[in-house]
């Protein structure tokens, strides 16, 4: 499953390392070096998971977490910190964190904790899904059309997941850009058109269509 992360971390080297690792896995990652930037990101985009440092230039990550939970924001949060005492871990979890990882950490462990949190939060299972006359397998990263498996690359996979989550709904280019790319990635005006075109080729032979509605966006339909 391809996800969108918000990484709230003021250590530039660590942030770049985490961002690069998750991006290599096909995920979109927005980096906020402080809480003010994090709030701006949350006001303009939806995230699947937040990675949160505690000691930040403009405040305490725990207070930020508590405030988000009080507002009813249930976005999963994994706290990343050098503090390792039992009282720190318990206090942070009681404030609403979904998990806690101590710095320095292994990236494989971080990725495993992300998967575990999303499973507990009821993220869509990595099992085959049927839509119209095709089968979508997000775990294998492929669609099956008339018995033929067709591999989806990371952004194609993410794009199809977005469409499949809202069949029949008109999705604007801006919305699709928000779901496919992080703010730090350069995005050309025709980037979405390119990925939609690639995805359409993978769906050829199926009754599933991605319709273009001029001036509005795109819509997934299936007979």
Automatic annotation (TrEMBL):
It holds the Pfam family Trans_reg_C. InterPro entries: CheY-like_superfamily, OmpR/PhoB-type_DNA-bd, Sig_transdc_resp-reg_receiver, WalR-like, WH-like_DNA-bd_sf. CDD domains: trans_reg_C. Residues 126-222 bind DNA. Gene3D superfamilies: 3.40.50.2300, 6.10.250.690, Winged helix-like DNA-binding domain superfamily/Winged helix DNA-binding domain. Residues 126-222 form the OmpR/PhoB-type domain. Keywords: DNA-binding, Phosphoprotein, Transcription, Transcription regulation, Two-component regulatory system. The modification 4-aspartylphosphate is found at residue 53. Residues 4-118 form the Response regulatory domain. It comes from the Bacteria. PANTHER family: REGULATOR OF RPOS, TWO-COMPONENT RESPONSE REGULATOR ORR33. This is Response regulator transcription factor. It comes from Pannonibacter anstelovis.
């Amino acid at each position: 499953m391809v996800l969108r992360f918000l990484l709230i971390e003021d250590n530039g080297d660590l942030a770049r390392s985490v961002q690069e690792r998750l991006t290599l896995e096909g995920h979109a990652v927005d980096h906020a070096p402080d809480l003010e930037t994090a709030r701006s990101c949350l006001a303009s985009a939806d995230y699947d998971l937040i990675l949160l440092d505690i000691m930040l230039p403009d405040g305490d990550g725990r207070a930020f977490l508590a405030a988000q939970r009080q507002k009813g924001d249930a976005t999963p949060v994994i706290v990343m910190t050098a503090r390792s005492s039992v009282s720190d871990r318990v206090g942070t979890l009681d404030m609403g964190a979904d998990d806690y990882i101590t710095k320095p950490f292994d990236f494989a462990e971080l990725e495993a904790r992300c998967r575990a949190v999303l499973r507990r939060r009821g993220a869509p299972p990595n099992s085959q899904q049927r839509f119209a006359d095709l089968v979508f397998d997000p775990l294998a990263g492929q669609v099956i059309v008339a018995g033929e498996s067709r591999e989806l690359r990371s952004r194609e996979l993410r794009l199809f997941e977005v469409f499949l989550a809202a069949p029949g709904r008109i999705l604007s280019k801006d919305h699709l850009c928000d779901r496919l790319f992080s703010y730090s990635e350069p995005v050309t005006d025709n980037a979405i058109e390119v990925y939609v075109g690639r995805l359409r080729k993978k769906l050829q032979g199926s009754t599933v269509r991605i319709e273009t509605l001029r001036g509005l966006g795109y819509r997934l339909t299936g007979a």
